[in-house]
Structure formats: C-alpha cells, structure tokens
Design a protein that fits this description.
The chain is mainly α. It is flat, with a radius of gyration of 17 Å. The protein has a domain of 54 residues.
Length: 110
C-alpha cells in the first residue's frame, strides 16, 4: 500500500510540473502559476498527514507553511528584480540563496 501511495504522489507531482511547464512555455504565465499554486498537492499532503497521524501534525505543517511564506515571497521578488538586469540563472541562484538564508533564520532562529 505504501508503494502505491508513493507512486500516486510521484504521478501527481509530475502532472503539476508538466502542466506548469507547458503553459509557462506557451507564454501563459498566469495559468501556469495557477496550476503550480493550486492547492492540489497541499490538499493531498494535508489529507495524507491527517490520515496517517491526525490533526496535530497537520496544524504543525500548516504553521510551517505560514512561517516560510515570507521567505518564499522574498525569493519571488528577488527573481522579478534581478532577472531583467542580470539574467535568469543569476536571479534564480540569488533567489534560492535568499530563500535559504531567510528560511534558516525563521526555522533555526539564527
């Protein structure tokens, strides 16, 4: 049963990434973002955590998502401002580093 669940997660993730990539490459950024941000993965994750362990771990996961949202927003802002000036790869690398730094501050309280 565990391997079936993992296969389902893998397929769902692949569908989300494939559809997001397809619509993004067709210059339909809002639709691609909608698919990527649609809570299908979160709904599945929350449901599976709940079925496996109950409500407390679900609430802990949701709190974690809320705490890390500011770091995610900084990552996106970094991409928006750096990509036009310095290119995609430097913007992506800078955004990931910025995310890791701020997420580290949030999670580990440095």
């Amino acid at each position: 049963m565990e391997s079936i669940k993992l296969l389902f997660y893998f397929i769902l993730g692949g569908i989300v990434v494939s559809l997001t990539t397809y619509f993004g490459s067709e210059n339909k950024g809002v639709l691609a973002a909608f698919i990527a941000m649609f809570p299908s993965v979160t709904v599945l994750t929350l449901s599976m955590i709940y079925l496996e362990t109950g409500i407390r771990p679900v609430l802990s996961y949701i709190r974690g998502l809320l705490l890390l949202t500011p770091a995610w927003i900084l990552y996106l802002i970094c991409l928006v401002y750096i990509a036009p000036r310095h290119g995609f790869w430097p913007a992506l690398a800078s955004g990931v580093v910025l995310y890791l730094v701020f997420a580290g501050l949030i999670v580990f309280g440095f």
